[in-house]
Amino acid sequence: MNPILKKSTAELAKERLLLALAEGRWSGRIPSTRMLCETLQVSGHTLSQALERLVTDGILVSDGPKRRLRVAALPAAGINGTPPPAPAPRVRKVLCLGREPMHLVPRLGLEFLSHLRTWLPKMDLRYHGVTFDGCRKPRRAWDRLVELEQPDQLLVMEGSLDLAKWAAAGRVPAVFLGGNPADTGIPTVGVHAGEAIEEMLAELLAMGHERICLPMFGRNPDFVVGMRSLFRDVFEAAGKTFVPTYHVPAVVASDPEVVWSVMAQLVATKAPTALIFFMWDEFLAAQCFLSAHGLRIPAEVSVVLLGGGESNSWCRPQLTYFAYPSERAAELAAHRIEDGPPTGKSTVSLPLKLVRGESVAPPPQK
Fold this sequence. Notes:
Elements: H1 9-22, H2 33-40, H3 44-56, E1 60-61, E2 70-71, E3 93-98, H4 107-119, E4 124-129, H5 138-149, E5 153-159, H6 161-169, E6 174-179, E7 188-191, H7 193-207, E8 212-213, E9 216-217, H8 221-237, H9 244-247, E10 250-251, H10 256-270, E11 274-277, H11 280-292, E12 302-306, E13 320-323, H12 326-339, E14 347-350, E15 353-355
Parallel strand pairs: 3-4, 3-5, 5-6, 6-7, 7-14, 8-11, 9-10, 11-12, 12-13
Antiparallel strand pairs: 1-2, 13-15
Helix pairs in contact: 1-3, 4-12, 7-8, 10-11
C-alpha cells in the first residue's frame, strides 16, 4: 500500500495550470500573474513556485524577467507521470457580464440566466461581475478578462455604450440584454421600457398625479438621460413642470441605505404621490420606508413596478406592475448566440405586459 502524499499549495496550483494548458485554454503566452492569482486564489509567491516548476519541466518557457511566460508543447507525461488527458470535445463558452457580483444579481437577472441555461444546455455558461462605468481603464480590465476566460461569446446585461464600442472595435462577439449599443451593430434583446413608462405616466397624470418619481439606482448613465428626456416630453405635453432631480433622481449605488436616503430626500422636498420602480429589491426597501413614515399604499402614494413575476403576487395590496418576459428574452438571446441576429435586424424589443393590481389610485385630496 502506497503512502498518502501531502501536496503543497504550489503543487496544487501547478496541477491546475497544467490541466488548463492540456485543455488548450491558452496559446502563446499565459495571462499575467495578477490574473492567475485572482483565478486560482493563491498568493504571488505560491504562483511563482508553481510557474517555476512548469518552466523546469519544459512546459513553459521564459523569454525574460519582464515578459509573460510562453507555452511550449506539452511533454509526453502529464501530472505525476501519467499521460496528459485527451482533449475534451470542444464546448462553446458563453461569458455573461453584469454590473453586480453573482450574489447581488437581481431576481429578474437570475430568472433570465436560469432560462438561458435551459436554452443553451450544451454550452459552458459563466457569469462575471464587471465595471461598466466610472472605471479609469475599463478597456484594459475587459481585455484581461477576455484573455483569461477566452470566451466564444459575451452576453452583456445592460451593457454600456463604451463596452459596445470596445467589443465592436476588437471584434469580440457579443450580445446585449438591454443597455445601449447605439449604432455599433451589437445584437440586442431588450424590452419596451420607455413605452411602458410613457403609458403609466399618462395614466397617472390623468388621475391628477404630478409628484411622480422614478428613482434610478445604479443605472446606466445613458439610460438615466433617456428616462429624463421621456419624462420631460410627457410632462410638457400635459402642461406640467418637470424637475429632473426630483421626478427622476439618480444615484450610482443601489442598496437599502441608499434607497432610504433617496426616499427621505424626496419626502423632505415634497412627498411623492406616485412612485415607479425598476427592481423588486428597490421597491421593497422603499415600501419599508413608506410604512415607517405612515405613508399608505395607495391611499397616500401609488406604486408601480417595472418588471417582475410571481413574487409580486405576495405583496398586499397587490402590485400594479409590468411583467418582464424573461423566458422569451432568454430564448431570443440564445438564438442570437447560436445563430447570430436575423439579417438586417440586430435589435429586438419585447413588450411588457401590464398587470393591474391595487397599488394605484388617484392622489390624496389636498
